[in-house]
Each structure stands twice: as structure tokens, then as C-alpha cells.
Amino acid sequence: MPDVTPSPPGPADSAGSVPAAASATASDPTAAAAELQQLLLNTSNITDFLQELAILTIEVLPGDLSCGITLRRDHQAMTVASSDTRASQVDEVQYGHHEGPCLHSLATGDMVVVDDLAQDDRWSAYQLPALGHGVRSSLSLPLPADGKILGALNIYATVPRAFGPSEQVIASRFADEASRALTLAVRLAEHTEMSENLQHALASRAVIDQALGIIMGQQWCTSGEAFDVLRTISQNRNIKLRDIATDMVTSISGQPPDNTPRFSHGQPPT
């Protein structure tokens, strides 16, 4: 991940005051939604979106902050994007010890505030390593999607008490909008994967249909009988049906088969 360290205004004081310029996007849900929607439009895949989301997160709050985004994949928590190396390293400390504010937020769906890590020993194995990375306070917020907690937004500060009541409100509002955007991004990614799988299936079907036509012409049989012949060859040779069909078409025509479905470019099916 690139090392991105923005320079927003100085850290919040103990009363939790937030400079208006820094909090404008997150304090206004409409502005936050618009910003996140723009991220979706400007990024070509979910990985890029998450990286930009991590960077945007530390721009809406004041102070020397780092952000990591944790998602649950195959029942394992992992950092999928971070604003800098500090965030990813501190996240990894939690994964290694199986405890920490980020994992607690991911497991419970609750916001977790650490005012001063030097005095907070709720996760003792995590405490000293995180302090060694310069973390003094943190804010972890769940990222729900489609009725379940998909991940967590982890914000780390180098000073104690960086996340007072005002910062918590701003970050919570931003996390809510981020969750909506993430839900949409995941759905788009799933749709893209489904479309690619469908295209692959259609391409395979096109090649198999060509092979069936060859068998029908050679053996004067029905399409069902031709498919049985093709399947028997596939089973006997332990080779995929599509590969058998490809070899057959290539041997007859002298060139690789046209595996583009006839209706995939706006042409109606025949």
C-alpha cells in the first residue's frame, strides 16, 4: 500500500472541538454520500475503492491519523486497505494476537473508543506492540452490509484523547455512509463476477455446440446422441468437455473455434 500521510489541521483538544473545514464532509450526510458516490464512479474495482476510502477517512477528521479497513474473508479478518504502513502494522498486531479494538468492533458491531492506550489494558497482548507503533488512541467503527457486519473502519491517532464526542459523531456518520457505499461496491463486484462467469459459460456452450454439429454431421444422429458421444470421449480421456470440443473443431476447421456466442454483441438468438 502507498504511504499516504495527509496534513489536516492539528489534533482535537480534550473538549473534542473539530475544525469546520475538516469535518464538513462527514458532518453533512449528503456531502459524505456524494463524496463516496464519486469514489465509486472514479474507481475501477473494489480494491481501489477501499484504498481511496481509507485515505478519505483520515481527511474528514483532524490530527495525525492513520486508517485501516478490515474485512472478513473466509472467516478470517484481514486489512484490505490502509492509508499508511502504521495502520496496516497495527491491524496485523491485532490479527496476530486475536484481540484488539478493531476485532472487537468487527465481532460485536459496536463502536470502540480507546482514549489513551497507555492506560487501557482491555487487550493486553495488543497494548504494548501498538504503543510501539506510535498509537495512543483509536476509534473502531463497524461496517455493516446486507444485514451483517462485513468489516470495520479503524482510525489510529498518535496523541491521546483524539476522538472526543464530536469526533465520534462525525466518524459514525461517515462510517454509516461508507457502509452504504461499500454495500453497493460489493454488489457491483459480485455482479461483475457473475457476468464474467456467464460469459465464460456461454463461450463454452458455443464451442460445444460446434462440436455437436460436427458429430451430428458425421454420424447422422440427434443432438442428444451427439452429446452422449462427446461426454463419453470426455470421460474416457479424463479431459474437460470444452477441451474435447475445442480439439475436435480445430482438427476439422484447421483453426481454433469461434467461441463467441452469436447473440453476445446485440444480435438476437437464432
Characterization of the model:
- With 270 residues, this protein is α+β, with helices and mostly antiparallel strands.
- It contains 9 helices and 5 strands; from the N terminus they run αααββααβαββααα.
- Strands 2-1-5-4-3 form a 5-stranded antiparallel beta sheet, sandwiched between helices.
- α1 crosses α2, α2 packs antiparallel against α3 and α7 packs across α8.
- The protein is elongated, with a radius of gyration of 27 Å.
- The proportion of strand residues reads 5-15%
Give the biggest sheet: 5 strands, antiparallel
Count all strands and give the number. Answer: 5
- Structural category is alpha+beta
Cα distance, first to last residue?
A: 49 Å
User: Helicity range of the residues?
Assistant: 40-55%
What's this entry about, in short?
The chain has 270 residues and is an alpha+beta fold.
Layout of secondary structure:
Elements: H1 20-27, H2 29-42, H3 46-57, E1 65-73, E2 76-82, H4 85-97, H5 101-108, E3 112-114, H6 124-132, E4 137-145, E5 148-157, H7 165-219, H8 223-237, H9 241-253
Antiparallel strand pairs: 1-2, 1-5, 3-4, 4-5
Helix pairs in contact: 1-2, 1-7, 2-3, 2-7, 3-7, 4-6, 7-8, 7-9
